Amino acid sequence: MKRLVWVLLAVVMAAGAWAQRVKVACIGDSITFGTGLKARDKESYPVKLQALLGQDYEVRNFGNPGRGIYQHSWRGKEKRAYRAMKEHQEALAWQPDIVICNLGINDCGEFLKTERRAPGTFRKDYLALLADYQALPSQPKFYIWTKLSPLSPGQKFYRSPEPFLMQRELEAVADEVNAVAIDMETPLKPYVTEFFPDLIHPNAQGAALIAITTAEALKPAKVDRAKAERERAANSQGWALPWSAPEPVALPEGLEGNAETWLCAGQSNIFWPLNRCAGAAEEAAETANHTIWVWDFVSGAWQRVTPQNAGLWSAMAISFANRRARASGKPIALLLVGVGGAPTEAFLAADVMAAVKPDGSPKYPRLHKIVTNRKPLDKNEDYPRTWCKQAYPKRLQQESRGWEVNRLYNCAIARLRPLPLTGILWYQGESNASVAIGGEKDTPLDEPYMEETLRAVIESLRPDPKVPFLMVGLPVMNRPWEPYRKLQAKVCADTPNAIYLDTFSRNLGEPGNVHPKNKRPFADLASEAADLALDPAKPTPHSH
To answer: Could you tell me which of 518, 442, 484, 511 has the C-alpha nearest to residue 280?
Structure first.
């Protein structure tokens, strides 16, 4: 009898423990379902996720192949919408605590024509699906794939505009329901040729990586070991983590709402360190009088600027920060995203390059062609500058691998989107003003192409049109840069809160040196423009 009591007690306790487990519903399409896996019941990502999260969680797979968001869409004789599936009803009946959503890729065929006919339908239908879960007594927390699993070269929608444009809608949905956004593209992209045998569905290794990425979002402490394995695997492929596993950036404690925050981005002249420039000692010494913090996207860490370390950072940015601190009396937070030789295309958001007008035509036709081509970009064959094409393959294992289309946006700029920017200081153009460098090939690029890159970079870098965008004009030098300068001035003139810094008329630069040694006059000009942009009524000693 005593033994029976103990057995019954154990059963009751086990049942209670089971009831207290966090219930995780994985809803989605064939990738969630596990299409293509030899042993779906052992290899699908929800199964792997269960193993990572442990006994405190119960994970169930509610995937259904071929399903999407659009409620009007049909797949043969049945609806395509996941909301119309029995798996959706089963997930609702289970009353989950967490809902992980992987949907969208099967809507690619409908996206452009639907959004052109009825803008906002994708977002509306996704929110309607999630509203069913929001109405549950369990009030589940949402985790949404805002960047979907990557497609492989050769797949029907590989580098088509739909996935790029859909990403913005997915992000908007996640914001609307206060969901945790999961980037599933970035960790999988390095392995797209290895882990996707049919070009769209991950194999067991790919499913395991999906599970790790998901577990990191749900419960980071559970996956320290798995994360370390992923880091080692990434590094073995030549993808160091600052490039392949970006996370959002927050300001140092005490700076939010109290500091000027400036994104300083561009190529070598924004990267060029203070200790290699004129006036370095004076500028470094002045940092002792101000509170200046710098975040560099390569290290991914904040550091307080001191006279001892100021020389390591951007001469342009440090000199500019000193002037902004003097003018505002506030702490200055600098966000440095500079890579030598980087063309503008590396800083552009893919959805901006792929954007379409209300009639469905490309907003930026030349950039649209680049981002939606179906060729691998490992040699930058899309760049019209021959010198970029020639140099890029040699630098793949170096910092300059940031030249790839969208790379600097994805690994750096996207991380900064949540931050309240005071303004943007953009010093770039040398790589986009000429076809090549030296000899007869040193000729200007096609002007419509140059203009597209200038307009698109403002749209990509600036989270809010009210944020001042200071564009440093190309300085004095013996290269055919005049057409580019004129376009810089033109684009800024007809773009609200974009300001062209006319370095040429002030005779700034050195005719034989692409890296002028004295960055201080450039910083003076930028700070004057910032004063006028932030407080138009405030008189400045150099305003004109």
So the answer is: 518
